[in-house]
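Sharing in case it's useful to others searching the archive later.

Someone asked me privately for the predicted structure of Phospholipid/glycerol acyltransferase domain-containing protein, so I'm posting the question and my answer publicly. Question first, with the sequence:
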Amino acid sequence: MPFSPLAQLRGLVLLLPWTAYLLGADVALSLLLPLKLLFPTLVFNASSLIANSVWAWVQRIFVTWNHASIIVSSNQRLPKGESAIVVANHVSWTDFYLIQEVAQRSGMLGRCRWFAKNSLRWVPFLGWGLWAMGMPLVSRNWTRDERELEKVFRGVVQKKWPVSKAPASPPPNTSPAPSGAATTTAPS
Ligand SMILES: *[C@@H]1O[C@H](CO)[C@@H](O)[C@H](O)[C@H]1NC(C)=O
Ligand SMILES: *[C@@H]1O[C@H](CO)[C@@H](O)[C@H](O)[C@H]1NC(C)=O
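And my answer, the predicted structure tokens:
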């Protein structure tokens, strides 16, 4: 899709400050890495705080500045701070905005950990941050991914880390699963 020079300039103006911030976040996440062995939960919490600010900014660009309207329909609100495993009907890469919106309403934006494609590792600035904050990067080859997934779920299961992993359901035996959906209208 061709963009007019003005739209390109607008894109730059919106994205450059965020990219600079992302670079700072990468540095902060990297500095936390050596502490991970000794204080894993503290590092997980701090990484989540940093991630929250980065993702909230992305969300603001989409919703506030680009006027996307996200409609969340559900017969039940996800409780604040509830951990969830979210299975998305991944029809377009923009669905992360929808998942982030739902996570944000539950105060879990910074706790989102995506099963991201391994190749995202090579996206400048973003890839390093994803890796440093412990996003599960998968190759879709089970032989290779098994260890990565085991590592990811160890934090959730053993250390009881709150997490929102990319419709969401409450733990069994608590309440019926909310049937929910988020839709968006793309900005023109
Ligand atoms: C990490 O965050 C959780 C949830 O906010 C909190 O209960 C816990 O005390 C924090 N732990 C550390 C070590 O910061
Ligand atoms: C998956 O990974 C294993 C170990 O690296 C490799 O031996 C195997 O050929 C891979 N399978 C596919 C379908 O790529």
